[in-house]
Amino acid sequence: MLLKLVLRNAFRHRLRSLLTVLGMCVAILAFALLRTVVSAWYAGVEASSANRLITRNSISLVFPLPLSYREKIRQIDGVKNVSYGNWFGGYYIDRKNFFANFAVETESYLSLYPEYLLPDNQKTSFYRDRKSCVVGRKLARRFGWKIGDTITLTGTIFPGKWDFVLRGIYRGRDDTIDENQFFLHWDYINETLKKTVPRRADQVGFYVIGIAAPELAAKTAEAIDRTFENSRAETLTETEKAFQLSFVSMSEAIITAIRLVSFVVIVIILVVVANTMVMSVRERAGEYAVFKTLGFGSLFLAGLILGESLLISGLGGAAGIALTFPAAKTFAAAVGNWFPVFKVEALTIYLAVAGALVVSIVAAVIPIWRVVTVRVVEGLGRIE
Amino acid sequence: MEENSPLVQIKDLNKSYRRGNQIIPVLDNIALDINEGDFLALMGPSGSGKSTLLNLIAGLDQVDGGTIEIGGVEITSLSESELAEWRASNVGFIFQFYNLIPVLTALENVELPLLLTGLSRKERREHSALALELVSLEDRMDHYPRQLSGGQQQRVAIARAVVTDPTILVADEPTGDLDRTSAEEVLQLMDRLSDDLGKTIIMVTHDPRAAKKAHTMRYLDKGELTDAPEISFTECL
Questions:
Q1: DSSP string covering chain B, please?
Q2: What residues of chain A have any CB closer than 8 angstroms to a CB in chain B?
Q3: Which residue, of A68, A234, A295, B186, has the fewest CB within 10 Å?
Q4: pTM, whole model, 2 decimals?
């Protein structure tokens, strides 16, 4: 009977209930999408390996480091292998076609990133051909590139038109791996620079260092930086995670704002659901008084009101969560170049469920308190 | 409870209400005995305190002073939750505006008080159907209140009031919202409950015709209880 009453009460004012359900649905959807945007921002951090260090110029990432540092770094205790590269900064056809592209020392780089899965034959042809490139699966799909295609990038840091033959398409080991990157041979760029701008040759933007164990990170980083102390290009070495976080921290204010908005959305819908519940309960004050008259206790009445609030919020929340996945997919397709990994995390869903639950419980508190504390005769409006 | 003692015993009953800083006395040292099977009509002008007295007898409100003993239980000493439990098994309510739950059918409305008993669903349904049969609404079981006339709704309310076989039935202006024919049907039904089933009924009414159906009439004015003045034939028209 309680369930029957909850169900029938919830839809006595169909339009009001449906609008509240819709509001809840949109709020939960917005909450989940905003949370996913924040997660996407941290995708690079999450995908970082604890076994990798990044060394860059201590002044800024803009300033290069000499290639000669490679051998010195390799000799430091704890270092297993070393690779290096540059942010190439090229674009395809139009500047708006943004994607990450790096000129790297191919063999050492790919050995440091086993999460990029590339078939052996593609790997071999990539290593053999200096004018070749490897791209992520999503990037290839985005531009319709196929193995053997010639891709021309327009350089911004390294001016000119650069042609690359696509020799491999990698995929990520799991869905946290960015599949929107473009890798080319650092040697190819360096050889060209030797001929065109010799003063820029033999310079690297960063070193990627593989270490034997994560616990050696701090000690090794310190040792690397100490090695190049008082040199003409002092270094700053940090874990890959810290390196990625330094990028994220540049957008900290935006991320905080998005986080805040996602919670404000929940507060707004809480007010809407609470208003619906207060209105419904006020309209039925006489009925609740009848229940009390008949001998029904506070627990039964609280169950009626909470049940109704749970049903309305639950329906809206469930619809919002169900819509999050297709909406996230659409969103990812639209902004994939900015958020290479746009995945709805389990935590986001748990938070959305918790949000819907909290809204339904809190929205029912005031109506329950009013119904429970009002005297029966007041509820019946029968005082003569 | 002693044998042959009244079912309802009210002694030195006082009740007042506070409005702002003002205290308004409503009932002043009321004493009243009601025997088992009696059908009592409480009359009086608006604001005389008759509904307040009814609420106190039904355990819906707390007294300021005095005692009410019903069936050997001094309800004035019970807590709110004890009173709720006591009401569930001892009092049947009939309201002026029926107060049925609009989202429940006639049968479900009648079944409501039985939810607080230990009866199974099947037993509850059987009892409710029987109560609806008693008020001649067995063909309206699945109707919602909005699909019933005022008189029919009041009969459903009566079925709901009697379904738990309570010690007393309290009725607050049960014909106040009904046309003459429906009112007559409801009064006849209450008459049957009293005469045939021996129910103890306490009814508050302004309607002299309704009061005439009762076995006993008491008049409440300015918080004091007196014997009812004679009701003329013309008042009953």
A1: --TTS-SEEEEEEEEEEEETTEEEEEEEEEEEEE-TT-EEEEE--TTSSHHHHHHHHTTSS--SEEEEEETTEEGGG--HHHHHHHHHHHEEEE-TT----TTS-HHHHHHGGGGGSS--HHHHHHHHHHHHHHTT-GGGTT--GGGS-HHHHHHHHHHHHHTT--SEEEEESTTTTS-HHHHHHHHHHHHHHHHTT--EEEEE-S-HHHHHHSSEEEEEETTEEEEPPPPPTGGG-
A2: 1, 4-5, 8-9, 12, 286-287, 290-297, 375-377, 380, 382-384
A3: A68
A4: 0.76
